[in-house]
Every structure is written in C-alpha cells, then in structure tokens.
Amino acid sequence: MTADQQTNRDVIRPAVIVISSHVVRGSVGNRAAVFALETLGFPVWALPTVVLPWHPGHSRATRIVPDPEQFSTLIDDLCGASWLGEVGAVLSGYLGNAEQANDVARLVGAVRAANPDALYMCDPVIGDMEGLYVPQGLAQAMLDRLVAIADIATPNVHELAWLSGAALPDSASVVAAAETLGPSRVLVTSAPAMMSGSTGNLLISGGQARMAEHRVIPDAPNGLGDLMAATLLARLLEGQSEEKALQLATGTVFEILARTARRGADELTLETDAQSLRTPMAMVNMRRVMTAAGRKRP
Fold this sequence. Notes:
Mean pLDDT: 92
Oligomer: single chain
Number of domains: 1
Order of helices and strands: HEHEHEHEEEHEHHEEEHHHEH
C-alpha cells in the first residue's frame, strides 16, 4: 500500500443520510445506496421510508409505511441530533407517502444549518417507461418540496419527462428540460445515447452537459438508479471532478450490471462485486452534449 492510499484510508469522511425504501431481499433503495456509500468509506445514517419483503416488480407483497406522525417525530429527533454536524450530504429516494416530503425537506434544512457545505441529492423515484408508479400527489410533493431545494437531482429520463412536462425524444430535449428543472446539477439516467444499442447517463451542470454511454443489457434488475445516485454522490464527496465522478459511477454501475447478468441473478450482486465500486475497470464512452448556452455562442 502506498502512502497516498494509506492516507486516503485514514481520512474521516462525512456521514451521509440516506432516506429511501428498504427491502428484506434484494439490492434496491437503501440496500443499494447504503452498501455503495459504506464500501467507498462513508458513514451512513439510513432511514427507511417503507419496508417491503422484496421489490414489487417481482410480485405483490406486504408494504409497511411508517405512521406519518411517528415518521415526523423521528425526523424531529434527527433535526435536533448533536451529531448533525458530521453529516456532509443527504440522499433521498423512494418515499412511502406525500407527507414524508415535508419531513425530508425539514431534515435537509437542519443539516444545512449545521453544515452549510452539505449537499442534498434528490433521486425522484416516481416512475419508468410505463408512467408513474406512485400516486400523482406524491410525485407532485417530490417535485414541489424536494427537487425544488436539491443541489443535485437524479431522475431517469421518464421521470424527467413527467417533472418537466416535456417530451424528450433526444439528448438536446433532455438537456433543455434538465436546465429548467431547478437544481444546479441534474443527472439524467437512461438518457438517449448516440451509439446504437447503448444508453447514457447525462450530467448537466454549469452550462455544460456530459454523457457517459455504455451498451444496453436487456432485462436488467432493479436498483441501478439507486446505485448510480449513491456512487455519483460518493465520488463528488471525494472531491472528484464532475466528469471523473460521472465516468467512475457509470463504469461501476455498468460493470456490476454486466457481471450480474452473466450470473443470471435477478438482483444486483453487490456483495460479490464490491471491488467494482472501489476500482471499476469497465470502459464507458464519454462525450460532450450541446447545451442552450453553447448554442447561443457565436
């Protein structure tokens, strides 16, 4: 081990509060995000918004949502915690009901009061190519209360279409919609790619747009968005540039997905592929995408 590697291992990293679903079996929601962040060296405060035996895509199953009053009281405890200054970021994902959006926003405010440099990443988990899979009121609360205050939002392209109210047939329309969403940085997953048979992760920030593309793997298991959001957040907290963070996070997700597919598993095999989080080897194609600011230049 080199001296630099030892120094990196000895660094005390900021804690991350992760607020999302919890499944007993599988690698989605908090199960994916917490594993990724802890593997990359970040302490995690994990708060479940709903508890399920497995992802609903497998079959219908019991759904346990915390009582709204109890959830709100728990948030009160966290807002007043003496350790809140340890927190460097909040990541929220799937919510169990619309009321939770107000509570999450309150916690984000408390974290920012304790640490003005803290980041808030909102992964608005509301739908896919088939449309919304949460009640419209919950989706609207996510937009109005959480996307509105986020430093970074990470919708998939279908979620961005609903959030922005725009049709998104190509990269240019995706960039335009992301630029009007509100957060200073928007990562759009499953974005239209330039290469045939590929998909992309498109990061729009500071008047620039960067695309990381990789080939499509059919019948992918759930949890890729959760994994991508957490891994990108970890890389940004490490101090990586946006382009490098996007490249590393996309490489990690593609590598784990490809290995999971080869095994024929129906859930991401994170526990077997932790090394892919630390040092991804998969190659992804990086390119720039024109933004509105770029089109206005002479």
